[in-house]
Amino acid sequence: MVNRRMKPILLVMAFFLGLIAFGNRASAAEPNYVISTDATYAPFDFQDKNNQYIGIDQDILKEVAKRNHFTYTLKPMAFNSAAQMVANGQADGIIAGMAITDERKQVYDVSDPYYNTGVAWITKKGSKLTSLSDLKGKTVALKSGTAAANYGLSLQSKYGFKVKYFNDTDTMYNDVVNGNSAATFEDMPVIQYAIKNGLKLQVQNANDLGNAGAYGFFVKKGQNPQLIKAFNSTLKEMKADGSYQKIVNKYLKSDQKTFTGSASDNDSTWGILKSNKKSIWNGLVETIKLTIFAIILASLWGLILGVMGVSQSKFLRGLSTTIIYTFRGLPLMVLAFFIYIGLPGVLHTKVPAFTAGLLTLILNEGAYTGAFVRGGFEAVNVGQMEAARSLGLPYGKAMAKVIVPQGLKIMVPSFVNQFIITLKDTSILSAIGILELTQTGTLIVARNSQGFRVWAIVGVIYLILITLLTWLSNWLEKRLN
Hints:
Shape: elongated
Radius of gyration: 26 Å
Distance between the termini: 41 Å
Helix content: 55-70%
Largest sheet: 6 strands, mixed
CATH superfamily of the largest domain: MetI-like
Number of strands: 13
CATH architecture of the largest domain: Orthogonal Bundle
Structural class: alpha/beta
Number of domains: 3
Number of helices: 21
């Protein structure tokens, strides 16, 4: 027979497992492949002005799917996370301007090369640096996991520069534009696209490019051989019938405004808002959904942890302390990566991004909530419990009728603060590909290179949301007191 005090814990555990199981059944019902990508790598992978995923990679992938009669679900996220999704079985394949290397062949099966590229070194526009020797003692920015980064790193000892890494292209570019780094290394078509969009960088020695190798389509080693076969056969057909070259020319030779919008769309805050209103709205809705669900469920989980923390049972008190200590000690991004990328490799089951993000917030925010809930209950004068017990109330009823109502009033300011933190923490989940407000901003910047304006817009939206949430929380606080 299950102890009554254990029932809340078992119910919560069942809920968490149910979230994973439900998400897994939902994804399993989709009769298509899951393909991950880095959608911030124009002109290979990015969003156009209509918020559709396009680029050399994406157009090739669409043609492969069309000619081989399959559908796919695209999962855009940071490059390293996108690669890990395939390695851990969360995705069936990845196409993201990913260079073919011997090390990657140990983990993945790879298609025939579909694009050969060269690496340029880039400085701020107007820079006096003219040769790689001028980089001695200076800092070079690199995007982790890319062929361009590997090429740049291979030159480090020869030319004596320092290196720092970034997870996304736009931040790396702007680090050079702002003078924090002296230079960067990048694939030539990628940097050409960015410069055409107005990024204030310049290519040094464009006629002397480093060899970065070739790009390929990757699947987990030993799995989905039919995808590799379909990709290779279609690529061969496309090169023979000219459709491959049409795709390449479309992005490397066309006017880039075809994809980014007119000057008025990108050169003013209002223009950016107007041309991206749909994607910004969708990102805002996703952020609000995550925040509402996380606030409700993390608060319930925190209340359970808090009640366990003041229980008469040593086991429950110890369990509460352990859970709170563990999940308060884990950085939110590490926890998100563990649930979304690490856990599926052990459980051999897929965890949808939204489910992983929600679980991350529940466990992390719930641990903080549990800590102040426990403190709130302990702050109630011990005489209140003694008086209730002396009147014949059992411990459980004394807690529910006397301690909890008084403790909750003490905790209201802490709840308000935690609600605001939860809203802000949703932005971290962009790292696992959830298309909330921050990830939406990243995709827009990758397309139009207007980092200052886009992040100003996103910042103002967050500020408005936090202000509204604060007003609501303060109103509730006054009603309860």
